[in-house]
Design brief:
The complex is a heterotrimer of chains A (305), B (324) and C (278). Chain A has twelve helices and no strands. With 305 residues, chain A is mostly helical. In chain A, α5 packs antiparallel against α10, α7 packs across α8 and α10 packs parallel to α11. Chain B has ten helices and 13 strands. The radius of gyration of chain B is 21 Å and the shape is globular. The chains are: A mainly alpha (305), B alpha/beta (324), C mainly alpha (278). Chains in contact: A-B, A-C.
Chain lengths: 305, 324, 278
């Protein structure tokens, strides 16, 4: 078990390292950054000054190792625009994005699990087909459009929910729902498939032969096994949500990490962009490791006893 | 002897396949009744339909299906659930997959007692440990905390047996409990079942395809072919005096050390088991029978040879082909 | 009965995709007006189901007086073009990686798996935005970027199906007969994994279309004045509280097109028997 995790950790570190390289390359793609930072009206001297000030005159390799070295220690550089440490900026915005992501995931689970279980119990009935249609619709829905529609209906016409900002917990409902929409189809399908498979298994026949209650058979015995892959995928979906939150945060004006990245791209503030890509990638890798851990916790067979 | 289980003319259909077309048997307390037949003859389905554990699209009909006098056909699913695991219990063929991999042995055993008798966790755990020891498992306390994947097939089957006994059932149905186990383990499990039955006075309905097992443990035997019970008799009587051509054929297939000669071909029944639909009339064995004639295409009478020996054939007493 | 439903769904999807392809290919012939022609005197005319509509502009006009229907049709062309091109590019990358990894195994496979893991950990929308933001938006850049980012599903499916096929007997037979690796790959492996990959390609088109719409919505996708549906929604955002239809219509188009592609893809999966993985 331990060996397995050490191996995963090494892979995780390698992935983080590769992402660092990619993030670095990505921001250097436009050629001369000094020009973009200095702005359209800069003179040659201005550009040179900028180059010197941001260490852009050093060889690329030096710049890269400087970035890697500092990033590994937590120093993600300084924002050109905000004139503050990037790690501070990210730290400030992260709670918003995390709240958004977790809200989205919770809503998704609250919807998917019961729907998946019911669809499995009523397999091949009209209800089952309805659930599959809903899943299909959810997959086709453009998230930003859904966000705008919800805003119009619930924010403007019904006035129930705030349409922007993070003043209250209600501000997270609509964006959370939109995020959940992207995860619900996959989670519902997985729950349904897992439950169908579990219910057809021999140990469920044994449970029935023991005269256990229907609820116990379904929720205690079948779900416990069907949920194992679902929980793992849920962790990964959270990673996707955090990475994809940039669109939702923009639509609903939520000042999270995604919004920060968005602003920074517009301002060519590449230390921030670089750092956000790295942070999100590291979080994703961490979540996949968490998913593996959850798998091991839930499935005794994986504990290597 | 009190009759525990009465099955009369049980019929089970799945869509267009008639899995069971007329099974009748009884099991009494203290008796081991073996239901024997080849794969696909409907013996497992018979066992499952007694407990009503069939899949959703199965249709079950019978003239009578009663447990301790109570009509099981009229019982709701909830009423049936009160009996399952309680007064009647069942163990299955595949011990490797019949236990839930996510829960400990202990929790799977105690939940039955707590469900049916409202026992406390403490009392249930004690009983579970007792029963594990009873079925020959050492260090029962440790085993209770283990997970199914940590046990071998033979151990798991013992656990299944112990689990079935948690609520002191009167009837135990065992569906090919030793088929998936090694030969040496088979013998142990059979000895265990026989011993338990003796000590607890259980009625045991044992499904098997192995005549050797039948000879060893059965008090009474019912032979099934293509969904029907074609012969039913006390064990010794069946082996000494098989009346139905199929039974005779089966017994011929088993080589008996000492009786069989060198270069003597092993017995075999030519042909294969026919697929039978619900409207099938007559004897299903007629295409493979040496004594078949036109009347075998119509309804076959039940003959009685002796007080407890029934068989389904047009011939009142088929001449036995001697072992040549 | 499930088959029957699938068939209705598949046919619906096929029809939708057919219409979209038709619009995409014949756009210049279909549009009633030039989608780029502005007419500030005729701004925000309402579509035909509302009062005060202009019969010249069936679906009304946008905030710069451009005919809405024409822009929608051209938007369809843009979406289909981007979807298909991105699917092609990402398919080439993903299939190559997946087949190599699945076929060779060992170190090569380790590298391929590592590449997939790394790619999965990247926040795709963010990276695409960053690249476009730094290099300026253009159709070709967008298509290349998305193509370089969306190959993982191809790789995963190609790899797993190749591994399954590799172990089958007829591959071993070809190997014994002295066929070169390349011939085995082309002649034995590819035909057998093709059905799975067609399904993935279909679904990837849908994904690419959604992604492009999101990027264009954020202003870093297809450059204006090109009528990408996402861009149309973004441009209409300022007016959405007064004229809701301006954002509803392109959104509905997106939704219906993606739904159609997904239905077709699911139907293909059932028909080609490629049910092994999601």
């Amino acid at each position: 078990m331990l060996r397995f995790f050490i191996r995963r950790l090494i892979v995780a570190l390698l992935v983080a390292a590769t992402v660092m390289v990619l993030a670095f390359i990505m921001t250097r793609l436009s050629g001369d950054l000094a020009i973009s930072i200095a702005g359209p009206n800069a003179t040659q001297t201005d550009i040179e000054a900028v180059r010197k000030a941001y260490g852009l005159d050093r060889p690329l390799v030096t710049q890269f190792f400087d970035w890697v070295g500092r990033a590994s220690l937590g120093d993600l550089g300084e924002s050109f625009f905000f004139k503050r440490r990037v790690s501070e900026l990210i730290g400030e915005r992260m709670p918003v994005t995390l709240t958004l992501g977790l809200t989205g995931l919770m809503i998704a689970l609250v919807v998917s699990l019961p729907l998946g279980i019911l669809a499995a119990v009523k397999e091949n009935t009209a209800f089952d087909r309805l659930v599959q249609i809903v899943a299909l619709l959810g997959q086709a829905m453009p998230s930003f459009w859904l966000g705008l529609l919800l805003m119009i209906v619930f924010g403007l016409q019904l006035g129930w929910l705030p349409i922007s900002g993070t003043d209250s917990w209600q501000s997270y409902i609509m964006p959370g729902v939109v995020l959940a929409f992207s995860a619900i189809p996959a989670l519902t399908r997985l729950t349904r498939a897992g439950m169908i498979q579990a219910m057809a298994s021999d140990y469920i026949r044994t449970a029935r032969a023991k005269g256990l209650s229907r609820a116990s058979i379904l929720l205690k015995h079948a779900l416990r096994n069907a949920a194992i892959p679902v929980v793992a995928i849920a962790a990964v979906q959270l990673g996707f949500m955090l990475g994809g939150s940039i669109v939702i945060e923009q639509v609903f004006a939520l000042h999270g990490v995604g919004f920060l990245a968005w602003e920074s791209i517009a301002k060519n503030d590449f230390p921030v962009v670089q750092a956000v890509v790295l942070v999100l990638a590291v979080i994703y890798v961490g979540l996949t490791m968490l998913a593996d851990l959850l798998n091991a916790v839930l499935d005794p067979r994986l504990r290597g006893a | 002897m009190t009759t525990l289980l009465e099955v009369e003319k049980l019929e089970v259909t799945f869509g267009r396949t008639a899995a069971v077309r007329g099974a009748s048997l009884t099991v009494a307390a203290g008796e081991t009744h073996c239901l024997v037949g080849e794969s696909g003859c409907g013996k497992s389905v018979t066992a499952l339909s007694v407990m009503n554990l069939l899949v959703r699209n199965a249709q079950r009909r019978a003239q009578r299906l009663a447990f301790q006098g109570q009509d099981l056909l009229k019982l709701s699913d909830r009423g049936m659930a009160r009996l399952r695991g309680n007064a009647m219990a069942m163990i299955f063929q595949e011990p490797m997959t019949s236990l839930n991999p996510a829960y400990t042995i202990g929790s799977q055993m105690t939940e039955v007692l707590r469900r049916h008798k409202g026992a406390s966790q403490r009392a249930a755990t004690d009983r579970a440990a007792d029963l594990l020891a009873r079925v020959g498992i050492t260090a029962p306390g440790m085993r209770l905390g283990q997970f199914p994947h940590q046990l071998s097939g033979g151990l798991r089957q013992r656990v299944m047996i112990a689990m079935a006994l948690m609520c002191d059932p009167q009837l135990l149905i065992a569906d090919e409990p030793t088929t998936a186990l090694d030969v040496t383990v088979q013998a142990q499990i059979l000895r265990l079942l026989a011993g338990l039955q003796r000590d607890l006075g259980l009625g045991l309905l044992l499904i098997t395809h192995d005549l050797g097992i039948v000879a060893r443990v059965a008090t009474r035997v019912s032979v099934m072919y293509a969904g029907e019970v074609v012969e039913s008799a006390p064990t010794a009587e069946l082996f000494a005096n098989p009346k139905h051509p199929y039974t005779q054929g089966l017994l011929r297939c088993v080589p008996v050390p000492g009786k069989i000669q060198r270069n003597q071909p092993l017995g075999a029944i030519p042909g294969t088991v026919p697929r039978v639909g619900p409207g099938f009339e007559g004897c299903a064995f007629r295409d493979r029978c040496d004594f078949a004639d036109e009347t075998c295409k119509h309804a076959i009478p039940t003959h009685h040879a002796g007080s407890a020996h029934d068989f389904l054939c047009r011939l009142p007493g088929t001449p036995v082909k001697a072992l040549t | 009965m499930r088959r029957g439903w699938r068939n209705a769904g598949t046919w619906t999807g096929a029809i939708i995709v057919g219409i979209a392809a038709f619009c995409a290919i014949f756009a210049p012939l279909l549009v009633p007006h030039d989608p780029f022609a502005q007419d500030l005197g005729k701004r925000l005319l309402v579509p035909f189901w509302m009062e005060g509509t202009d019969p010249n502009h069936l679906l009304g006009t946008d905030q710069l007086g451009r005919d809405y229907l024409s822009r929608l049709i051209y938007g369809c062309r843009i979406s289909m073009m981007i979807g298909c091109t991105v699917s092609l590019v990402s398919g080439l990358i993903g299939i190559t990686l997946g087949v190599l990894g699945g076929f060779m195994g060992g170190r090569v496979d380790d590298v391929v798996l590592f590449a997939i893991t790394t790619r999965l950990s990247l926040p795709v929308v963010l990276v695409a935005l960053a690249v476009v933001g730094l290099l300026g938006s253009s159709m070709s850049l967008l298509m290349i970027t998305l193509g370089l980012l969306l190959w993982e599903r191809f790789a995963v499916v190609a790899r797993s199906t190749t591994m399954q096929v590799r172990n089958l007997d007829f591959v071993a037979a070809a190997w014994c007969a002295g066929c070169s690796r390349f011939r085995i790959l082309a002649g034995e492996v590819l035909p057998n994994i093709a059905s799975h990959l067609v399904v993935v390609a279909t679904l990837e088109i849908a994904l690419a279309i959604l992604l492009e719409a999101a990027l264009s919505f954020l202003g870093l996708g297809v450059p204006p004045p090109l009528p990408s549906w996402g861009l149309m929604i973004a441009e209409a955002k300022d007016y959405m509280f007064f004229s809701a239809w301006v954002i509803v219509i392109p959104g509905v188009c997106l939704f219906v097109l993606v739904l159609g592609i997904n239905l077709l893809g699911d139907g293909l999966r059932d028909m080609l028997g490629a049910r092994s993985d999601t």
